[in-house]
């Protein structure tokens, strides 16, 4: 299929491609599996503690940011491998900066998660 045919793809097809992309990253990348496991645990805990509506919104926003960045990081890795299969300092820069973006989001998410859960754990004591 040529590039033009791809561009003519219907909205439904585009949605399907996006889902395929997500499934492929989940199958192939270890880091996103770790993020998804952490997400399931955090969602289970938030349900158990009957999170307030605002707390749910903050939690969902940080989950979305981390998982979306992980997907973008995988896309950057694929593009770099395609454009520069050989060792190149710029290829390293691109991959390391993309990985850095995920790391920043993950670290801040852990801090926000801690702040979100703290009052609920305090009530338990
Ligand atoms: N073409 C390249 N040129 C220079 N350095 C590269 C190149 N490809 C990867 N690297 C570097 O090698 C290290 C490992 O890269 P790799 O592609 O295995 O990704 P990774 O960080 O292990 O992530 P993942 O585990 O998600 O694949 C990183 O520091 C990366 O910047």
From TrEMBL:
Question: Could you tell me where this protein is found in the cell?
Answer: Cell membrane
Xref: Gene3D superfamilies: 1.10.287.3610
Offer one Pfam family short name for this entry.
DAGK_prokar
What membrane topology term does the record carry? Multi-pass membrane protein
Biological process (GO) annotations held by this record are:
phospholipid biosynthetic process
The residues responsible for catalysis, as annotated, are 70 (proton acceptor)
Task: Read off the InterPro entries from this record.
Answer: DAGK, DAGK_sf, UDPK
Provide the binding site for substrate: 8, 70
Is Ion transport given among the entry's keywords? no
CDD domains on file: UDPK_IM_like
Tell me yes or no: is ATP-binding among this UniProt entry's keywords: yes
Co-factor binding comment: Mn(2+), Zn(2+), Cd(2+) and Co(2+) support activity to lesser extents.
- The UniProt transmembrane annotation reads 34-51, 57-76, 97-121
Q: Which GO terms describe its molecular function?
A: ATP binding; kinase activity; metal ion binding
CC annotations in GO: plasma membrane
Q: What is its main location?
A: membrane
Q: Which keywords label this protein?
A: ATP-binding, Cell membrane, Kinase, Lipid biosynthesis, Lipid metabolism, Magnesium, Membrane, Metal-binding, Nucleotide-binding, Phospholipid biosynthesis, Phospholipid metabolism, Transferase, Transmembrane, Transmembrane helix
Locate the residues binding ATP: 8, 17, 29, 77, 86-88, 95-96
Instruction: State its cofactor.
Output: Mg(2+)
* Positions contributing to a divalent metal cation binding: 29, 77
Question: What family does the entry list?
Answer: Belongs to the bacterial diacylglycerol kinase family.
Protein name listed in UniProt: Diacylglycerol kinase
What organism is recorded for this protein? Gottfriedia solisilvae
């Amino acid at each position: 299929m040529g590039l033009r045919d791809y561009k003519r793809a219907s909205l439904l097809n585009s949605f399907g491609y996006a889902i395929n992309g997500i499934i492929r990253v989940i199958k192939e990348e270890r880091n996103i599996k770790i993020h998804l496991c952490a997400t399931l645990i955090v969602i289970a805990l938030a349900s158990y503690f009957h999170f307030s509506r605002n707390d749910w919104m903050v939690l969902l926003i940080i989950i979305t940011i981390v998982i979306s960045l992980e997907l973008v990081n995988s896309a950057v890795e694929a593009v770099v491998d395609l454009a520069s299969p050989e060792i190149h300092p710029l290829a390293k820069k691109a991959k390391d900066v993309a990985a850095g973006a995920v790391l920043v989001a993950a670290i801040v998410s852990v801090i926000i998660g801690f702040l979100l859960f703290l009052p609920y754990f305090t009530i338990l004591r």
